[in-house]
Amino acid sequence: DVKVTQSSRYLVKRTGEKVFLECVQDMDHENMFWYRQDPGLGLRLIYFSYDVKMKEKGDIPEGYSVSREKKERFSLILESASTNQTSMYLCASSSNSGDVTEAFFGQGTRLTVV
Amino acid sequence: GQNIDQPTEMTATEGAIVQINCTYQTSGFNGLFWYQQHAGEAPTFLSYNVLDGLEEKGRFSSFLSRSKGYSYLLLKELQMKDSASYLCAVMDSNYQLIWGAGTKLIIKP
Predict the structure, then answer these.
(1) B62, exposed or middle or buried, with CB in 10 Å at 0-12, 13-18, 19+?
(2) pLDDT at position A2, please?
(3) Are B42 and A102 an interchain contact pair (Cβ–Cβ within 8 Å)?
């Protein structure tokens, strides 16, 4: 059974803190993604990675950075958390092989910055 | 710009049929996905269309017309557990997924 696991389901952090969100997949997927989801806005891509040590900016990278040191792990870092980063964060992975390259999602991390 | 449009909310009755529409304008097209997302949970994959026509999968079917930039998700024999948000996403020419804001489907007994 395919699995994408995010380190925390709920997280509360203070403004200015450095925040790490971890994501691990066990499907040997090449591609990994970080999204945030806010009501009425749909999923917005923050960063993605097509290979180890490779990263690409998505639509809203400001205030975030990522790290992919191993194929199975993709970390999202909030350098200095702000209240406007309160959101649901979703990690996803997908493969380059096969006819249907659907994305598999983790359970999400609901982050509140106070 | 790239755009995916779908209704914000729909209401249907248990046992009935509902059609959720999605229109898109993207830079290129490499397939359209439908996902289901229950409140507070992650999206789960429902269907994929890359060629025109209807794809049927049990109670759920998805239709695509590339010339019209249009898709719909058809849910038959609605059950209470089908209450969820339904997300439409298009893969563009760069193989990036462009997401709609989702349609919240409310099922009434």
Answers:
(1) buried
(2) 67
(3) no
Q: End-to-end distance of chain A based on CA atoms, in angstroms? A: 37
Q: What is the pairing mode between strands A109-113 and A10-13? A: parallel
Compute the average pLDDT of residues A94-100. Answer: 76
Which pair of tokens denotes residue B61? Answer: 């079917």
Identify all chain A residues contacting B87, using CB atoms and an 8 Å cutoff. Answer: 42-43
CB contact under 8 A, B102 and A90: no
Question: B101: Cβ–Cβ under 8 A, 6 or more apart, which residues?
Answer: A40, A41, A42, B4, B6, B8
Cβ(B29)–Cβ(B48) under 8 Å?
Answer: no
Q: Which two tokens stand for residue B41?
A: 């949970």
Which B residues 40-59 touch A at CB under 8 Å?
40-45, 48
